[in-house]
Amino acid sequence: MELVRVVSHNTHKRMVSCLQGHIGADAEKRHKKLPLTALSQAMVEGGNQLGEESLIGKMMEVCGEAENRLASELMQHELQIEKDVLDPLSQLAEVDIPNILKQRKQLAKLVLDYDSARARFSIISGTNTQALTAKADLLKEEVDEAMNKVELCKDQLAADMYSFFSKEGDYARYFVTLLEAQADYHRKSLTVLESVLPTIRDQQDSWTEKPAFGTGLDEHLKRSGREIALPIEACVMMLLETGMKEEGLFRIAAGASKLKKLKAALDCSTSQLEEFYSDPHAVAGALKSYLRELPEPLMTYQLYDEWIQASRQDPDKRLQALWLVCDQLPKNNKTNLRYLVKFLAKLAQESDVNKMTPSNIAIVLGPNLLWAKTEGSLAEMAAATSVHVVAIVEPIIQHADWFFPEGIFCLFVCFFYVSFFVFLFFCFTVSLLYVRSTPNKHSDHSLRRGSNTLGRKQHTSPAFQPPLPPVEAPGQGHGAGQVSQASVEPQPQAPPGGSGPDGAQHSVAQGLAAPAAAQHTEELR
After folding, report:
1. 0.70 exceeded by the pTM?
2. Angular region, 447: left φ>0, alpha ψ -120 to 50, beta rest
3. pLDDT band at residue 341 under the 50/70/90 scheme
4. What is 217-431's CATH superfamily?
5. Residue 372 near residue 384, CB atoms below 8 Å
6. How many CB atoms lie within 10 A of CB 371?
7. What is the tens place of the pLDDT at every residue in 403-414?
8. How far is CA 192 from CA 45, 64, 170, in A?
9. CATH 1.20.1270.60 residue spans of the chain
10. In this structure, are residues 231 and 290 in contact, taking their beta carbons and an 8 Å threshold?
């Protein structure tokens, strides 16, 4: 019994120390004194001070309200624990068991009194004198009375102990009640949190000011509502203004502090970028860092094997193989790669000044566009694939207008060509009927028009079949990055407004040469 009392007392003491409210206080006072209540008040006040324009302020206000609801649940939980567990456990340890122990002590005392009376009676009962006989009768009564008290006390003690052991299941139930109350409290707290989490997550997801560096391309574009990633477009705009003739662009490292500042500015989508126009190497470094920190390379893990396989093709088949792989890129990746490659092609046109030929650009920038999905450092991955990556990126830059023809959609182009051919064929037929009554010079002129028209119809859009690869002029090196128009197979003529590879090259060159950065960017798109 003493052991049960000690164990129950220690458990009660530790359980009280786990409560955050004041024991015995009423509900309102207990709620005010809870640490969660103080935290809730601090969060709500902080959110009000920061205002609705701050995401931190919004989050603190929502979290403060949630913490207040959790504090209410905790207060109700502790009141229940105090009523259903602590009070009965205290009654057991401090009242019920001590009463039983007192009964045992009382019984021990009564037994001693009985033994003393019986001993005195035994001494006197051995004499036969009349005086001692009278005293023996008194002692006999005292012994009988002590015996009765002992029996009564024994009966009471036995009844209390039997009662305790019969209620042991009820006492053990206190600990079941404790766990049930805790489970109920946590379920209610979880309900509170689950009701708040969707709201706070929606606010977090709707907040567009998120870092671009290290964020997936699709996520960044979806969140910002853009077609071109902000770091790519911003860096290209700045480089078009001040970096096209900078020697060693993308090769010479920028200052670490300036690069860190520019990346942080791009992460928070600030428009205050004027100070970076004077440091094109920092801008180029930021562009390389963005490409390198993408969770997946711009040219994708999925097509890595296809890219490498295409780079191993014979020179006469390599461009065609690369075009087929490029056409498989996801929409967002292809759009951003096209934008970047168009810029790099324009940069390579200034290679006489900036020394950045397509080969040099591919060497320094290629490992940031494509790498293997393997364990290891970036340097190890770059070293493992650098040769193949250069063989992939260099021809794409050299023949940017062939890989990414600009203008109207290819389907519309084909429809336009077919319709235009039917019209010209009709005109050609009419002219043949007319030529019989006209001089031969008209017939020659019509035939020339007809032959030109037939030449146009020989080619279809790259959207339907791979276009023929460009052919370099005799005597022109592979790294020069220029394609001879005289040696290229006849390409579809662009509809009015400029389309097709030649038209796209002309429009991009004009746009990139314009003074405004916005015009440069629109042409690169």
Report:
1. no
2. alpha
3. very high
4. Rho GTPase activation protein (1.10.555.10)
5. yes
6. 23
7. 998 643 343 334
8. 21, 12, 33
9. 1-207
10. yes
